[in-house]
Write a structure and sequence with these properties.
Blueprint (H helix, E strand, L loop, with lengths): L3 H11 L21 E9 L3 H8 L5 H4 L3 E7 L16 E7 L18 E12 L4 E6 L8 E13 L2 E13 L1 H31 L1
Antiparallel strand pairs: 1-7, 2-3, 3-4, 4-5, 5-6, 6-7
Helix pairs in contact: 1-4
Pfam family, one: Polyketide_cyc2
Keywords: Signal
Organism: Hohenbuehelia grisea
Length: 206
């Protein structure tokens, strides 16, 4: 009988390589080992503070996001809070579409039941000074699922002048991630890419 680690290696070899590289210096933390990762970026012609404002405006996500359809700050029991300002150590309920919806989207579009995925997360980082945020899947019980998503903004110099670089990455590890890699790694990657494109389109059209 092969070990779980060996099986995980087979999964990595069987899954497509999910990489989204760019020529700029990354503002994300160094990547950690895992079963698979999803990542995407966009160079956006908008001020960094404006992009940061939209990124943390969770109630507006249904209006433009084809991947993370709802991002809701809740209490410990999962009840939505009146104050939806993202903050560290807050609970976050995410309703995602995997695969993502076709762009553009709006708040009146219904989520597909077969492609809707809900997760509960802990907000682990909101760094307004360095424009980095992160949330981590709640592990009940560990180590069934380990997944932390980071998003970061930075100003980069392009041939057309300064632009805002949006980057996002999530690394999936532990037992459940092996199954996730086999079933939906490609669609999760597609979701990251579509969210990055939708964010760029939203900000550059406003």
């Amino acid at each position: 009988m092969i070990s779980l680690r060996t099986f995980g290696l087979y999964v990595l070899l069987a899954c497509p390589v999910l990489v989204s590289s760019h020529p700029y210096e990354s503002h994300l933390p160094p990547a950690t080992p895992g079963i698979f990762k999803a990542e995407a970026y966009a160079v956006i012609d908008a001020p960094i503070d404006k992009v940061w404002e939209v990124l943390l405006d969770f109630p507006s996500y249904p209006k433009w996001n084809p991947f993370a359809r709802k991002m809701v700050i809740t209490n410990m029991m999962g009840t939505p809070l009146e104050d939806q300002t993202p903050r560290e150590n807050a609970r976050l309920r995410i309703e995602a579409q995997i695969p993502p919806m076709k762009r553009p989207v709006n708040e009146n579009q219904r989520s597909g039941l077969l492609s809707s995925q809900t997760s509960m997360e802990n907000v682990t980082l909101i760094d307004h000074e360095n424009y980095i945020c992160a949330w981590q899947a709640i592990q009940l019980p560990p180590p069934l699922l380990a997944a932390t998503r980071y998003s970061a903004l930075s100003v980069v110099q392009t041939p057309d002048g300064p632009r805002t670089l949006y980057e996002s990455r999530e690394i999936f590890g532990s037992v459940i991630s092996i199954v996730l890699a086999l079933l939906m790694a490609g669609n999760v990657q597609k979701g990251f890419e579509e969210q990055a494109l939708a964010l760029k389109e939203l900000l550059e059209s406003s």
